[in-house]
Amino acid sequence: MERTKVIDLLRREDYGAEVNVKGWVRTKRGSKAVNFVALNDGSTIKNVQIVVDVNKFDDETMRNIATGSCLSVEGTLVKSQGAEQSVEIQANKIEVYGTADGYPLQKKGHSMEFLREHANLRMRTNTFGAVFRIRHNMALAIHTYFHEHGFYYWNSPLITASDCEGAGQMFQVTTLDLKNPPKTKDGEIDYSQDFFGAQTSLTVSGQLEGELAATALGAIYTFGPTFRAENSNTPRHLAEFWMIEPEIAFMDLKELMDLEEDFIKYCIKWALDNCMDDLQFLNNMIDKGLIERLQGILKDDFVRLPYTEGVKILEEAIKNGRKFEFPVYWGCDFASEHERYLVEEHFKKPVIMTDYPKEIKSFYMKINADNKTVQGTDVLFPSIGEIIGGSVREESYEKLTNRMKELDMRLDGYEWYLETRKFGTCPHAGFGLGFERLILFVTGMSNIRDVIPFPRTPKNAQF
Length: 463
Ligand code: 4AD
Ligand code: MG
Hints:
The protein has 13 helices and 16 strands. By secondary structure, the protein is of the alpha+beta class. Strands 6-10-11-16-15-14-13-12 form an eight-stranded mixed sheet. Strands 1-2-3-5-4 form a five-stranded mixed β-barrel. A three-stranded antiparallel sheet has the order 7-9-8, with no helix packed on it. Strand 1 and strand 2 form a beta hairpin. Helix 4 crosses helix 13. The two termini are 36 Å apart. 4-amino-1,4-dioxobutan-2-aminium adenosine-5'-monophosphate binds next to strand 11, strand 15, strand 16 and helix 13.
């Protein structure tokens, strides 16, 4: 008999039909005579109820039907008596594919920490099922948005010899014998003998290569894994995360901000339009304000705020008695407490902050006429802080190389990148969205470790 997915089965009304469903047992309850089994196959947050007449099945089968076990059930589709579901299945034949003695996820309400230790199984809980269905939907929304707006999906390499953000937070990639690496005459490690003939690392951003593509294809986006060896043990940082990086020729600062806002609203609307069952579950169980907060994002225009204005607002707040842990002064890099004050308390809506001091931003950002600030943008979100970082790029070869020299960056190794500025340079801009930060926002989960299947964080690469 052909298998029906639970999501399709729950929409059917052809009572009396013989059906087959397969899935994992969430719960079993009932009496000596009749048991009710909640079966879930991952196609939806909802379970299908299987009504089991105990007398029809042998003792071993009844014993093996337990939380975590996997079943194939054939039975009759009937209208449900209970209010929770419209249909249920009266079981005629049950095959136990897999028993689950000692299954660790027995009771409801396991802590997130406990579930992280069982990340190999946690996808089978309602919460993580919802999170990962939403994660899939957000990926689909992102590809659809860019495709519909004339962007090409394009891929940057993951292994690279350059540090895009210049922050030195890179994981080295090497096949050299770490116990006995080859040395040059000066006693340095001789990377010419390494696999790639140079010192290489995992990429912190695909932007530099993305810029090359934008100056050929016009508008591209990357969507791939990104690696940062920053020792930040926070609920917002991963050592391996996914980033979406569009890069667009002939785009200025205003158009960049318009794109950031339109894009992120599209993703959130997609979730509201396509993931309501999962969102409702998360709204009930994880974060009571979730759906309202998502709808709120769509209502308002984002605030567009130059950094210098932001400093003034924070200084004013301090004057009026607001306390912050970190000091505020022109030139400081805002801490998340400052960003959250602006977004959650002062404006009560997302803020796109622009025109940062050049000292706290990356080398490639376009320098303003004041020669002090750059055309960088951070999109700041409630409860998340920075969700997008982007900028207009410095397109002048001279200004860009001067800035790199000021920062003591070596130009050799970046010739391939600098050639975009030598040959037909053009104004262009782009941004990076942290995929997991978007998922955090859309699901209402509070720790970034719980929106990626197997988180990579300092001292943790389990699974
Ligand atoms: O602001 P970032 O560092 O910007 C770039 O990498 C640029 N090259 C992007 C571009 O213009 N093409 O990172 C972009 C976003 C951040 O806003 C944040 O959402 C996310 O990536 N991000 C992280 N997410 C999880 N864990 C980390 N350690 C992250 N670091 C950055
Ligand atoms: Mg940033």
